[in-house]
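User: Show me an example of a complex going from sequences to structure tokens.

Assistant: Sure. Here are the input components:
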Amino acid sequence: MKISRRASKADVPSMAMGDIAFNLLIFFVILARAEDDSHLHWQPASAVEITASGAAKVSVLIDSDNKYYVNGQQVGETQIAGEVESLLGNAAAGDRRVFFKVHKDAQAMYFEPAIAAISEVGGDLIHVLEQKKE
Amino acid sequence: MVEPPASATGDIAFNLIVFFLVCASVQPDSGREQSLPRSDQDSEEQTENIQVQLTRNAVMLNGAILRQDDFAIALNRSLKGKVRPEDRVVIVQSKPDTPYSHWVIVTEMIDQAGGIVTIQTEEVQQMVVPNS
């Protein structure tokens, strides 16, 4: 006598797909916010001639409270050079761009040491500015 | 009531992920590139370089206070005929309270005039006060 095997159906429940994708969404959004500096408070200074700057590996930001951030992470003034150097690594000359985002009212005693630090480690400084309104 | 198929929610959420990630990355930064000479490349002939002093709301060229419009003209005149990069170095000294917006305007003028901006930070001087 032949006993036919009953094929069991083992599908991933399609209802769970929505939950998985939603969790992925939250994960990526949080990850992206931790890496960037969009949540920080600063207003760019304006300039007449600005150009699209493309992308950069590193961004150094000084916010409206004169606090320093490297890629969104708060650092001390003396840590900027080390942090930027480790992020740039052994990148080639054209690939060492560093976005420099400074609140327009920040004073020289805060932004000059940061410029010196970026210059010291061989970063290509790009001041992030907005177009001056006529 | 007709419910939407549950299998579609995965696709909807995945499209949401793509949408948010693309939105987060399409805002390009714009600005101005600035080449600063490394500190070890500073020339010894610093006395011959053009010096620009910045205060909170004033600009000085080799010690003379100028209006912003006059500064651009005077700077162009100073850089005229200077071809070698080391001759086109402009040393910028800023008072500690100089705002970044003011610094950007002046350094932009220097760049436009063909000068090479070099920052000279104020040196900390130690003074020994004799005991009386």
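The lines above are the inputs; the final block is the predicted structure for all two components together. The mean pLDDT of chain B is 78.
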